[in-house]
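Trying the structure run again after the queue cleared.
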Amino acid sequence: MESVKPNGCPLHGGGAAAQSLVGRLLAEVVASRHVCGDGDLAAPLDVWLIDDRGATVRVTTGPDGCLIVEKAEPHTGYDMGDSGRITVGAIGNETPFADYVGESILAVQEEHEPNTGRVALELSFPRGRVRCESWAGDLRLTLM
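Done. Tokens:
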């Protein structure tokens, strides 16, 4: 993936500089998920990357298809009545980031689209990579 000069989302701006993640030790990952009536967890809606100094970066998608990367603390879960609930908590082994807790982020690469801004972020760790991308409005996390 080529590194592209950052250009901000028209709705959300540029967000946090993704390069600021380089050198951070990933200490914890928290995710929000939509839970329907049967209790099955959907893919994460938001992911918060927490470093060993307590700094937190949220990765999520915007309604315009951008990938938002911002400094933000995890929110609390909430009930949506008949539509289910949103849970927020530490991940177990449920996302690709679980394999890299305790490792430093070595490099970051971004992809941008002219009308949307950032659409993908790839984080490199000593033992592999995780790609975060906005995919049809959903947050998609992939081991590379």
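The CA atoms of residues 132 and 141 lie 5 Å apart. Worth checking whether this holds up in the mutant runs.
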